[in-house]
Write a structure and sequence with these properties.
Elements lengths: L3 H15 L3 H7 L2 H16 L4 H30 L5 H9 L4 H16 L3 H8 L12 H48 L11 H10 L1 H15 L3 H7 L9 H11 L3 E2 L2 E3 L2 E3 L3 E2 L7 H28 L1
Antiparallel strand pairs: 1-4, 2-3
Helix pairs in contact: 1-5, 1-8, 1-13, 3-4, 3-8, 4-5, 4-8, 5-8, 6-7, 6-8, 6-13, 7-8, 8-9, 8-10, 8-12, 8-13, 10-12, 10-13, 11-12
Length: about 300
Amino acid sequence: MLARPEQLLLALIGEAAIGYPAWLLAVIGHPVIWIGAAIAALDRRWNTGTALRRRAMGVALLALVAGGVGAIGWLIERWAGDGLAIGLVIVLATTGLAQRSLDDHVRAVAGPLLRGDVNAARAAVGRIVGRDTQALDENGIAVAATESLAESFCDGVVAPAFWFLIAGLPGLLVCKVVNTADSMIGHRDARHLHFGWAAARTDDLVNFIPARISGVLVCLAGLGGWATMVRDAGHHASPNGGWPEAAMAGVLERRLGGPVRYDGEPAHRAWLGDGPAPDAGDLQRALWVYRRACVLLWAIVGVLAWLL
């Protein structure tokens, strides 16, 4: 039977090469879409009552969805055993990784921006970030896309890979549940402040080690950025997001962060890094740093596969 590092290496390379086929997405959707639908349904039904009840039901939601999805992953691994069905585990693992889709989404921003088509770039970046994008200029678009690329390298690549190594397919799937729940309900708005508390805190725990690994990989891939990462990572509002973002800012020698708007309301964020804001060319450089960081991750997993 292939060991977990070998399975993960095949999943990483396979997902980067093929991604999730568009025809399959159209026919049956994607596991993350199914997970999101379950979370949304429970949000509508359970997110009512007092603050204490909302918090308790938020814990119940996370336990139910993560426990159910994790159990499915465990049963699949048990069924796969030592036979050819281990290929199913590898294929399912690719659905929890987002190397290619992240690259595709950021290229969809960088391409128009390099051509000077700010309107098309603004529309593309609006599909991957939560901030208001209507008034963003070239630099604002490049900042948003670069930050999304760096943070999603942790959430969509390193974290699921890390938890696959630790706990196999169940670990990867539970990681995706936690990440999806945090993105959907882990907000501090009035509706989700209490209901999303468990999702937000669990996401902090799940990504704690992967975020720091992500920052190190970005610095290694970019041959620098260490001082900026160490200095500025803690300034980020998230205990984890600052590590890959500050690392990317240091590698590019550009400044990320700063004030933005969400639903028309201003949000004040710390600055990460030094220098001017990134432009279209810097976003393209960030993509190449990201790609090299992915290859470094493959190399590390490959070494683990060889050693184990």
